[in-house]
């Protein structure tokens, strides 16, 4: 018929370092598959590409790059995955994405770069159907397992990132208290995401950033 096959949902998890994004993303994918919903786990940066390897070297402090340059590389890393992302969604896959453009803007603007400049290269990327922000204070996050040695893993900087995130909130955001026990966070996420998958199946249109 003329009706398009139902599409998957684009779900993004955001939050400070140690807020629990990666833990929750993998739990969510298992849950969805258990419900018979075809889902895949994605993450940014995607360190497997050439661009991703440059980003990885920067994060581990083995290379130095100008703030604007690394910002554009993070963005390029999303652009190089855009068409695959669209294909997957249109063939019915739900994508659970660990960090996206909001991380890009929040981290770079926390360094002092102009926020509109930071948003510009993200224009035209696919807009998430829902962004779940795992809310945790920088202090509480720092208590979790301690930070590793990567570039941004310092309390003072994480405070600035929290401020930057707070101006990026829009209607697609659902804020979940990330300080709750993992199982409670998980339950809330499941509800939000099932609703979102249903909406997308009913024909909600894919949009582009920033909408
Ligand atoms: N970055 C950027 O600048 N620009 C961009 O465009 C993008 C990213 C996309 C690498 O990210 C860096 O790149 C990141 C932002 C920047 N720098 N910083 N900061 P990454 O995603 O690779 O970072 P990561 O190493 O995966 O860490 P993470 O994402 O910050 O952590 P998380 O995924 O949010 O948390 P987790 O690994 O699930 O959990 C952390 C610990 O807390 C772990 O021991 C868990 O067992 C524990 N945990 C989790 N949930 C709970 C609850 N509910 N209670 C108690 N304990 C918990
Ligand atoms: Mg993570």
UniProtKB/TrEMBL annotation:
It comes from Vigna mungo (Black gram). Residues 13-188 form the Thymidylate kinase-like domain. It comes from the Eukaryota. GO terms for biological process: dTDP biosynthetic process; dTTP biosynthetic process; dUDP biosynthetic process. GO terms for molecular function: ATP binding; dTMP kinase activity; nucleoside diphosphate kinase activity. GO terms for cellular component: cytosol; mitochondrion; nucleus. Keywords: ATP-binding, Kinase, Nucleotide biosynthesis, Nucleotide-binding, Signal, Transferase. Its EC number is 2.7.4.9. It is an enzyme of class 2 (transferase). Pathway: Pyrimidine metabolism; dTTP biosynthesis. This is Thymidylate kinase. The keyword Secreted does not apply. Belongs to the thymidylate kinase family.
């Amino acid at each position: 018929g003329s009706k398009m096959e139902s599409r998957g949902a684009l779900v993004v998890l955001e939050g400070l370092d140690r807020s629990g994004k990666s833990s929750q993303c993998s739990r969510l994918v298992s849950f969805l598959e258990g419900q018979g919903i075809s889902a895949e786990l994605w993450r940014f940066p995607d360190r497997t590409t050439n661009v991703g390897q440059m980003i990885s070297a920067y994060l581990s402090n083995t290379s130095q790059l100008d703030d604007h340059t690394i910002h554009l590389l993070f963005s390029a890393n999303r652009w190089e995955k855009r068409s695959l992302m669209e294909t997957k969604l249109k063939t019915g896959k739900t994508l659970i994405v660990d960090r996206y453009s909001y991380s890009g803007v929040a981290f770079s603007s926390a360094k002092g770069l102009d926020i509109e400049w930071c948003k510009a290269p993200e224009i035209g990327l696919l807009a998430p159907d829902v962004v779940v922000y795992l809310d945790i204070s920088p202090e509480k996050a720092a208590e979790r397992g301690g930070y590793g040695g990567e570039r941004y893993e310092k309390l003072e900087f994480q405070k600035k990132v929290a401020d930057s995130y707070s101006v990026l909130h829009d209607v697609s955001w659902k804020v979940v208290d990330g300080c709750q026990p993992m199982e409670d966070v998980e339950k809330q996420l499941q509800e939000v995401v099932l609703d979102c998958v249903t909406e997308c199946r009913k024909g909600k249109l894919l949009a582009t950033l920033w909408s």
